[in-house]
Amino acid sequence: MIKRLLFPTLSMVLVALAAGVNAFGQNWERAVSLFNQQQYREAIREFHAVLRSNPDYWQAWYYVGAAHYQLKDYEDAIDSFQNYIKGAGAKDKEQITASYFIGFSYYQLKQYDKAIPYLTRYISTSEKLREKVDTKARAALGRSYIFTEKYNEAIPVLTTAAAEMKDNAANYYYIGFVQHKLNRDDQAVTALSQALAIDPRDLDSLVLLGDIQLARAKQNPASAKQAIATGEKLLAVQDTESAWALLGQAYLLDKQFNKAAPLLEKYARAHADLSSAWLNLGVADSRSSQWKPAAAALEQAIKLAPKNIAALLELGYVYESDKQYPKALSAYQQVDEISSGRDETARAGIERVKQMMSRPQ
Predict the structure, then answer these.
(1) Using N-to-C axis directions, what is the helix angle for 60-70 and 40-53, rounded to 10°?
(2) Last residue of a domain, one of 148, 180, 199
(3) Are 275 and 305 in contact (CB under 8 A)?
(4) pLDDT at 9
(5) How far apart are CA 288 and CA 206, in angstroms?
(6) Which residue among 124, 148, 172 closes a domain?
(7) CA pair distance 333, 27, nearest whole angstrom
(8) Domain, as residue range, for 3
(9) In which band, very low, low, confident or very high, does the pLDDT at 26 lie, cut at 50, 70 and 90?
(10) Residue 8: per-residue pLDDT
């Protein structure tokens, strides 16, 4: 899962400062001017000068915090808005503003557990006062729940965010991700399909949807066509390992072995230490009657996992089909030993190969 971060701009939240902004004359006006010109570091220095002269003028902490936020100095932004909260006391609108920036600062720092209470406070207080809620705050709260594995809490927040951000595929992707985590794959497929309706090239949604469809196809190979369709779209978007693995395995389950083999070979070579990758390649080559490439792939799978019964049985079949009976017998006998004589396929293979070896050449 890609953790797509949100970065709201300063214009998303406006604060209504108390009356008397001109109380401190030119110092205040110069500080505000620097802030409005986006000369944030200079503005910070000027506002600190105002605060040194007038410590009770807590409103200056808003500008200091907002400037630090724009500079991505998130820890300093948090400290500044904490001072703003202390100065504001029980004033709801100021609490809304501070909670927003503190919540997003923690979010940008990837301290999601700390972001949650502030984003929650921002949303709930805004709704209480019938103030417009920034939809990106809902999305950030939903993602913070996900990144702290509070999946059930994430769904209602993300559902609202998705309804408000109708052109945003990411919210539907995250809903699909959560539903999948909660083993609700029907709901996950629905959400991911909504994401792809918005953005047909959304990589994360294609990968997750394909993984769900592939898992289903392993239980019911007749449904492999769905995984193939998604895999082909994924490959068209990005020719990467995820696409090779998904589409290669889907072709394999659908018995399109000639199509599966090239993709599975690319994946196996990219993951040379992964036994299952070589096994899949070996099976694709085997079912295509490509005995030598199949044997090479299966030997590699067994080298990485010497007691892999599936690989040994397939290797026995390959060598038997290629009439390399001593090697076939060895593979079947290894399975027989590993299974303590309980694998009927291996026992049948041993008998069959022995009969072939006993025939006159």
Answers:
(1) 160
(2) 148
(3) yes
(4) 55
(5) 29
(6) 148
(7) 89
(8) 1-16+25-148
(9) confident
(10) 61
